[in-house]
Amino acid sequence: MKVLVPYDGSDLSEQAAVMAIELLAQHHLDLQLLRVTSDPEGATEAQESLTDATERLARSPAAVTQRLTFGRPEHDIVRCADQLGADLIAMSTHGRSDLVRFLVGSVTDRVIRTSPVPVLVMHPPTMSLDRVSPPTGRKLRVLAPVDGSRLAEEAVEMAVSLLQPELVDVTLLTTITLAVLQSTAGELIEQLAGRLRERGVTVATRIVRGDAVGQITRLAIEDGYDLIAMSTHGHGMLERALLGSTTDRVVRISEVPVLVIQARSMETPFDSVSGEDVHPDKAAHTSEYHGRSFAFTSLEHKQRFDSAPEAYVGRRLDRPEGFPSPSEGMAGEPITVPPMAREV
Length: 344
Known about the structure:
- The protein is an alpha/beta fold.
- 34% of the residues lie in helices and 22% in strands.
């Protein structure tokens, strides 16, 4: 598994790398530590700190490399993830209080909204290494909130592909209100559970009442889950800029790592061999690679991709219009969101 870890010289960002290595210990990890600086005059100091961190992380089982770039962090992180063909980005949130963590506009927020691959978000001050280190031999316990939408279900299936079906125990969680019939929710969640079981995944289902954010974050801690996996639902700038979405709020207060899967990371909307536009639903041929779906206009293109996928997974770099701007989905200046209770 290829993991890109942004490193800004802080202890928190290095701790996020250590936690990612511990959490994903059952996978062979190729981890690239990325330092982005906007100050060429500070390049020597930035390179030295990056090298020191790389050497410390290299003592772990992961294969660790380093990279220094000059630019805007939120832009270079996304671009390098695509160029590397990363399976995910692992990074920390830096807020030390609820107030700070609710500020919109941080690098992590922007990466989540523009990343072509899933983003694993951790908040080291509230997570101990013991908490994110599943015992050797135990499957990763994943809490996957679903709401009946296609995007939420596809996010779960992509998370399973990424983490490998035989290495995870998944609990599908649906929260309902008085306006939603429990029988309807149960039917929808069991359909998804059935598809996952056909892939060899150990699956449990759970339906609870109450505020979704409170229930997700509470159960994740109380029931000892290793990871929360969920999607973002916004498609356009307006939808993605709205504050208060369940995923946004869970990311900000969760004491358990959160794997956030952006809708765009589920499919590549052009033939990555030829560069031609092709809608995944109308593609003549498709392939899956590390949980992402790739569409092709011809069998020859599919065969070329299947024979050497690493050569093509970063082709989005050749299409600048395929990247959202670093600020897409962010509306105006950072604002403060009122604190919310952790419990319901």
